[in-house]
Known about the structure:
single chain; 387 residues; Metallo-beta-lactamase, Chain A; seven-stranded mixed sheet; six-stranded mixed sheet
Amino acid sequence: MKISDAVKYIGVDDKNIDLFESQYVVPEGVSYNSYLILDEKVALMDTVDSRKTAEWEQNLMEALESRKVDYLVVQHLEPDHAGSIQRAMELFPEMTLVGNAKTFNMFPQFFDIDLTDRTLTVQEGDSLSLGSHTLNFYMAPMVHWPEVMVTYESSEKILFSADGFGKFGALDYDDPEGWACEARRYYFNIVGKYGAPVQALLKKAAGLDIQKICPLHGPVLDENLEYYINTYNTWSSYQPEDKGVLVAYASIHGNTGKAAERFAEMLRAKGVEKVVVSDLAREDMAEVIEDAFRYDRMVLASASYDGGVFPCMQDFLHHLQSKAYQNRTVGIIENGSWGPTAGRSMKGILETMKNVTIVDPMVTIRSTMKESDVSAFEALADAIAKA
C-alpha cells in the first residue's frame, strides 16, 4: 500500500486470528498497521502484535534500505500495536521512544526494559522535526486507553489516528458492504463507551488540514474524508445512523422467536424503513450491538428464566449498558409460561440508560403467541412505527 514517497506502510495482515481481543470474531482477519517516515531523521509509527513480529521486521528492514530508525512514536500501548517494541529496541539500540507521560508510566507494566536516556516525553501540541516532515502530537486519552495520542504530520497533512477510524478485516479483503460495516462493529464494541473523548478528539482534528488518515487497523483513508469524520461524529455523539428497528429476541424453545418474527412482519407492513431481526442465542453479539447503535429504535423479545430474563438477553443488555447505549426508543415483548418476569427485568436494565424511551404497551405472551395477542402486538407495532 503506497502512502507517499517518504511515508511507507510496513504493517501486516493477520488471517489466522480466531478472536480479536479474545471476544470478537474476525472471519476476514485484521490488519496491524505500522508506518515509516523517511527524512533526515527516520520515524517509526507504532509496531505490531507479537504474533506478526517476524513479518513486520522484514517489511521494516526492506523499507529502511540499510538506514536506522531514530524515533519510535508509541501512540498506543495495547499489545496489538506495542507487541514488537522490544524487538525494535533490539534492532536499533540508539533509537528514541516518543510518548507522553502516561505512556511511560504504563510502559513497565508490559516491558522489563531500561528506558534510561531512551525516551522523549511529549505533551499536547508539541512537535518533532524530522527534516522536511514535522510531527505534531495531540493527546487522545480514553480513545480508548488513557495513554493514547495521535500524530499529525504537517507537510503531507497526514493524521496518524491510533485506533480511531480503524476497522476489522485484513487489508486485502474487499468488503462488499464497504468501510462502514466492519468499522461500525469495531467502533461500538471497542471504543463505543468513550463517545465524549472521541468528540474531544474530533474537535482537535477539525482545526487540522487533513488529507490522509492512517489508522492502526484497516485501510488508509484518503478520499471523501468528510464522510468518515461525519460518521465518527454521529457514532460518538450516540445519535442513530439510520432510521430502522432492531428486533432482538432470546427464545428457549422457539416460541418467542416466532412471535418476534411475526412482530417484525407487522412493522414492515406498517412501512417501517428497515427491520432487522436477530437471534441473540445464535448470532454474533458484536454484530447485534452494532445494529442496536445503528438504528433509532429497538424491540426486545425474551423468554422469562429463573425469575428474570433469559441469559443471552441479559448479556446483550449488559453489553449495551457498558457501551453507554442511549438516545433510542425501545419496545418490550416478554414470554412466560407461568410467571412472566422478563419484561420487568429488561425494563429495569433499560431504565439505567440515558435518554432511552420505553414505549407502551409492554406485550406479554404465555408460552405461545395466540390470535388473542394480536391486538397488543399491533398496538406496540403502531407505537414503534410512529416513534
